[in-house]
Amino acid sequence: MYEKFLVVASKLDKAGINITTQLSQFPGSSEQFKFYLVDKEIIYTESFDPEKINDFDFVIFASKHASESGEKTLSIHAPGNWRSADYGGERGKVCKSSSLFFKHIFTKLNENVEHYDLKNYKVTMETTHHGPLINKPCVFVEIGSTETEWSDRRAAFILAKTISDSIESFKENPYNEVAVAVGGPHYCPNFNKVQGKSNVAISHVISQNAFPLTEEMVREAIEKTEEEVDMILLDWKGLGRKEHKDEVLKILDKFFIPKKRTGEVDK
Fold this sequence. Notes:
Blueprint: E1 5-10, H1 14-23, H2 29-32, E2 33-38, E3 58-66, E4 73-77, H3 99-115, E5 122-125, E6 138-145, H4 147-150, H5 153-169, E7 177-182, H6 189-197, E8 200-206, H7 215-223, E9 231-234, H8 242-252, E10 259-261
Parallel strand pairs: 1-2, 1-3, 3-6, 4-5, 7-8, 7-9, 9-10
Antiparallel strand pairs: 4-6
Helix pairs in contact: 1-5, 3-5
């Protein structure tokens, strides 16, 4: 499905440079993928030369993650904005996302964290958020959430190995059910369980933070999923009060795609 991968990081980003430095030491990496280090922050579309991206099938952004909690995290998410574009990209536009590759790299990350016993880091998906906006399927892999973690060579090694492993072993799985996810908090605890322990493959996540949900958001999530969407996955408790749930269901009914709650998925 994807043959030519590009790994992108900013020269201003300690975590991104840490990850790409580790990744450059893997044998045979130059045959599997290419690097593109940019001078500015990678959340801004204008930081890139489009010609350096156009020749590739898939883009992986290696980046830092910052949060007020300061929690140690290794996180993965699709880029894009459901509403405002305060942090790059365009308002109401998201990038293409492959649910199958997203699931694959999330699975590999969990396996590597367990194998190398990095217990003090939390592995998590995040909702789709921030820029850039590019016309290629892509995913962010991030180290969070402070300078201490951004400089952590062990954490960077695990993300680098995850990128290398994922590119080397990725194959389409016809048994996966493709889903876009709606509801819940930014760090997707219920969607994490589904992505990691079921045959459902999630592409974009519209968290409750982006509500009120609109028809345009759902259409954007579906159209920017590389694979045909089989279901809309709901974090039922994470949809809010009954009147909010009713409004969400009213919008989703317009798409004639089966809906399933996370609790109804076999794990």
